Here is the input.
Amino acid sequence: MNWLNNFIEKHPKAAQWIREGGLFVIVSNLITVFKYLMLTFLPAAFAGLGDRSFGWPGIPMTILGETFQWNILGYDQAHGGVAYFAAYMVAMVIGEVINFPIQKLFVFRSHGNTGKQIAWYTLAFILITCIVNSINCIWVAVAGKFVPGWIYNIGTTVLNGGISMIVFFFVNKIIFPQTPKAEKEEA
Here is the structure.
């Protein structure tokens, strides 16, 4: 352990990035597994909403023989519609509500202004979700034609988690600056 202490002493910024990056990956992957489990079971809970199309902008596409509506938000009727989108969003929001305080306090050790951090985190979540959902919309349609639902839910979760994890790490480095507890809630 002496080599580790020497490394930390000689390279404190690199050690911080390694600690934060490692913890971030562990926490993010645990949250991703949690989201997968929710996404596996939640669509049945929202079945009462029906499978009618729900999405924007609803551009017709055909990929690998599968025709569907491409949306930045939402899914067409054949691929779950409003029920699947509701389940997807509930899983993503619950995951991020759990993720936020863990990342803020445990991973990045930030005690900055929580209100501002929530606002920035929410904005990042909305933008990242729109990007990921626009890709996921294609994945769900095409993968749904070739593999069972539980497999494409793994893909959905990994896609969402993977892209989100990479982007969110750098977003979190900005919105969660490491601050001593004494500076808590100043700013």
